[in-house]
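Deviations from the work plan: none for this task. Representative record:
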Amino acid sequence: MCQPKQIAVDDPRFLELDTFLKKLQGEKGIAMIALQKAQQLFGYLPLEVHKHISAFTGISVAELYGVSSFYSQFLLEAEGKHRISVCMGTACYVKGSQKVLDKLCELLNIKVGEVSSDGLFSITAARCIGCCGLAPVIMIDEEVYANIVDLNELEQILDSYRSKEAAAVTVSVASADNKGEAEDLA
Amino acid sequence: MRQTKTRNKIHSVPFSSGTEAMKGELKLELEEKVPLVNLTINGQEVTCPESWNLIMAARKAGYEIPSLCYLREINENSSCRVCLVEVARKKGEAFRMVTACSTKAAEGMVVITNSTRVRKTVRLNLELIKANHNSDCLSCIRNDNCEFQRLCAMYGVQTSRFTGAVREAEIDDLSWSIVRDPSKCILCGRCVNTCKAVQGIGVLEFSKRGFETTVGPAFGYSMKDVNCLYCGQCIEACPVGALHEKDQIEDVLKEIENPDKFVIVQTAPAVRAALGEEFGYPIGTAVTGKMVAALRRLGFDRVYDTNFAADLTIMEEATELISRLKNNERLPLLTSCSPGWVRYCELYYPEFLENISSCKSPQQMMGAVIKSYYAERVGVDPNSIVSVSIMPCTSKKTEANRPEMEVDGLRDVDYSLTTRELSRMIRQSGLQFQELADEEADSILGDYTGAGVIFGTSGGVMEAALRTAADVLTGDDLEDFEYSEVRGMEGIKEATILLPIDGQEIELKVAVASSAANAAKVLDAVKSGEKKYHFIEVMACPGGCIHGGGQPYVPARERIFLDPRPARAKALYDEDLAQNERKSYKNSDVQELYKRFFGEPNSERAHKYLHTHYGQREAYPLKEDDSSL
Amino acid sequence: MITRTRTSWENISNLRRRTLTELEQPEHFRVTVGMATCGISAGADLTFEAIRQEAERNDLQDISLEITGCIGLCSFEPIVEIYEKGKEKVSYVKVDPVKAIAIVRQHLIGGEPVEEFTLRGFLREQHEKKQREAEAHSYLSHKLEPVTTTELDSRSKDLVIEDESEESDLAGLPEHFIDLPFYKKQKRQVLRNCGYINPERIDEAIAVGAYAALKRVLTEMSAQAVIDCISDSGLRGRGGAGFPTGIKWSFAAREKAEEKYFICNADEGDPGAFMDRSILEGDPHAVLEAMIIGGYAIGASKGYIYVRAEYPTAVKRLNIAIEQARELGLLGDHIMASDFSFDIELRLGAGAFVCGEETALIASIEGGRGMPRNKPPFPAAHGLFGKPTIINNVETLANIPAIILNGSQWFRTIGTESSPGTKVFALGGKVEHTGLLEVPMGITLREVIFDIGGGCPDNKKFKAVQTGGPSGGCITENKLDLEVDFDTLKAAGSMMGSGGLIVMDEDNCMVDIARFYTEFTVDESCGQCVPCREGTKRMLEILERITGGHAEMDDLDLLEELGEHLQVSSLCALGQTAANPVLSTLRQFRDEYETHIRDKQCPSHVCKNLLGYIITANCKGCTKCARICPVHAISGKPREIHEIDLDVCIRCGLCIENCAFNAIERR
């Protein structure tokens, strides 16, 4: 479950990337295809992945980064499964959204733009999301949470996502068990 | 016995498959064999080759067309839009605005380079650049030789009507050699394509896009931690002050003013061939005597010449070559004088590290000798000596700071300055350089031979080594010791030298490569077994040290018609000719040094002071996980 | 050799005959579900699945259930159509899974159409509901809130009833989409197969004529004859600039090179435009066929389709189409045993609008940053990997097979003299019926916006229409009768662009529109050339000053100077056209700009910073607004008229929404 910040050198996804890159050997103009494949495998394109592609293709890390930072679909940093946007519009700000933001960072032990260690959340500071009457508000994915006056609420909100996630894991484990049973039966 | 050499270069598989990124100069005079076209520029008839663009054609007609991003055959993306001119394909046709750099001259074309419309457009583009350019010119290292500042002055752009956001800019001055100031960057791409096309490396690249575009290494890394050679070719390419050497003038002046310090300076061969350009001399004027005089006036306690150490290097390296040839081990021997090249090998070709000569570069040898042999002989406390070098090179700054470049806790070289820094020191001191009378370097480390002088140009180290090695191998004082095959500005040069040894003709195969891109070609050919050599000279900069990254700027508009390299190289070959002795082993001070201190080349003591080691390097080390903060 | 060729093409002909019968006279039921991106987002995938499972449960083996592309009217999705031998086609609209099950049971099993779910049934229901509402309102007008119908319903209402007096005439309700006013002035040439065939089945494409043009080209025509035919037809590139396609091809054809490339530009990026997506999702084989023909004409053996990664459905269908064409020998080595070989590879974009510019697109396929380069040299001479390259837009290509089959003269009978053929537009903004439409060139904008699109909703006054997206300009009322083609639009200070039409009414602030498009360009500028990188940003900053209320009159001159400068001095078309939205609004709505600056007012009440909030004499001093204001900008004693401190006010509008006495106004 825990998503480490750095991708291990022996991560099996590198092998898969190598297999893909080997097929492209000798072809022209592969930087973009390589990056697209890597993003598909890793979900984003950290420095490790750039270095790996660079070593394989001979294209410099800076040149690859020139490409990956040019196109908006390439992600250079991991995103959490759920994006928490804290509205920092004037209305929310005067109602204490900075405190909300600080509290969230504290609870998740991350800074704005980072991903929590369990990979579940990332935090962004958003411009006015147009719910001034409900200030201060945060948005998790598409869901709006209003009037966050009591900062203790935040923990509960986060917990609701965590327990959903745990439930999903249980279900998949359960279904895997069932599958096992089915195979046993067969 | 007379020496015989093959006169024909052996090009079994020629290297020149791709275009050389660093082309020589164009001649303003026309050659007859190229197809010519006639066109009208600002009402004047001009005839020029059809391959010329309008910037060149206009220059021939006597007009400068302003440009910022254009660096002939290296950066031709026509992105600055400052060279816009009005063009009609034929007389009578409508005029259109096109960029002169990207438009070829054509028969019957009519060009206007200075109409009100053109001037207004150019001025507005300059104004737009200015709005996002840190225009604190007075404190800028390029003040007075900035290409952008010059154009703004030409077009009367003093202020910009545009206010608003400016590029976020953090100065990167963490490396020993190069400072990158994005607030000055005008995103012309000259450095990007120089690094990519000339060096084949790609340290600097455009990243992000639109108004957010920046130039630099990936992921905001400092140039300290990436695959940079610190060759400084990007600095030579930069039209503004966005890339420059790490200036250490003040540190050195402080040492000079400290009465407890004994400050010794050495100057590399290529410095004398270019320093004069900063003081109005034509390119290719050697100013050795005035340079020595200026250094004395600046307050250096002793002025020495790195040429001395170049001769010393040859003693060590030629001996190493002969020993490897005899034992047939670790061949080809690769030279080690160019710190940019050494770094390149450490980063990209670690499998060749054991082939590189273990000799320190002349700069480091000089420093080591100064703080040991010299200190001992003149009775100065080596701890009080400050060792300064003047180099045509920015990579030398990093080399001087490599941790292993010290003996018994004494750093070989304390400060390494570039030719440009020296010129600024001289100007800031108020010295009238042109009025100085020539002086000579101080003795006991001041003598040098012609072989030491030519170190400064591509092929020079090779030739110098061959002069000594051939004599040692043949046991003769050969008269025909000029090796013209390895001279010249070609990126890769090859030669096979036949040496008569013990009644047999022995083939010595050598190659000379300058620029990292050319080094890669040669090494790849060696790796694949396609080529076999005994000895390879590599310089990181195209043409060698005379075109090093610390040399005076030659503006892009002049680089169209002017390649400074052959003229600077000629200055060195002329000085070679003028020397009494032209073979390193005949340097009397060097002979004295061996007699009194090192015994013989490659001795144990020589190894302690004059040799070093190399190691594989990793670019872009992953940063420590800081999420625990 | 000849025999082999004939045999191969014979296979294709047999396939055509066989499938055509299935399509037109299906033995049992043929059920199609509109599954373009718009359909899927309306839930067509669920509908499809419901039909499939219900049919399976009832063991309906002999129906053919097919997906199909977009028929153009987004507001009716999901659309299900049922064809039956000897009967008229039945069109069902807004079919959710529940309706789908009913349709399977009653129509497919019971043989009786479910009248109330059909197009006609839906329109009748709408009509009757409206009538009831009107009646109720007339009885109780003082006690009822104004009647609201759902947005989609209101969009559909005027499709049928143009005149209130015809309200009782239910018999005239159309049964088929083509009878709707939306379709009456259309000429669906390029889109003819979208919404009819299954785009994932090559046999259906072949049944309706795909690859017949290729057969003619490969068996009867020389490369020059193909180029002549396209040149004579007068077809011009649909991607924006309108360069004659045949001439472009001839440039590449006369280049001598070992390798040439033929690229389809499917990097459709204008906000609000989705013509190319619909074609790729509905009729991918038309594009493949055209590329093979183009490759033959210029002598290329390799083709690329550069498609936005944001179009997963189009990508999927293209991949299927390419695979199927390869299997039949229509792509690959020695196509249909001829001497001509051609293959196609897909390349996905990664989110950069500028890659729609052909040299940037080339840079992107080459794997680099999508930065345009100077022209000349043009790609036809020096393109992908330095080789001669033709880049055509999707819609341009979709025209090719029909021109080859019907001849260049036929094509010239459609459209205008200088711009023959049709044009597909994506109509959006403040117009009753948004959607995709195809009309002959030369139609007036008035016809498109009012006759086809039904005009502005809610009786709002039409203000302008933006053509050409962020590269185009706005056309005002007085130019609505302009006959639309490449040249007239250009002359009117706008451009055809790829075909987005955004209608604006009196509620739209033109300064804000200009700001919106400029913001888009700033985001999408590649950052290479000075005028575009720096200039668009400065334009945006000036526009933000104007909409923010702190601009000076001089700013207008600077804006105009900058805009004209961008047109002359930018490197590529993106920069050269980036100022069009600004310049065209500035020229036609200068007074609006001036009002913003001089009076610090936004006449359309759009620009937030310029909105004044005023409490009128209606205020009873109930203090509700003061309590609700999130930034405490309202003060006043109970039972006295309150005041708003505009320096503090953030114009969120809460006070207006909550005032029980209508005492707060925006000014």
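Confidence is low (pLDDT under 50) at residues 1-6, 144-168 of chain C.
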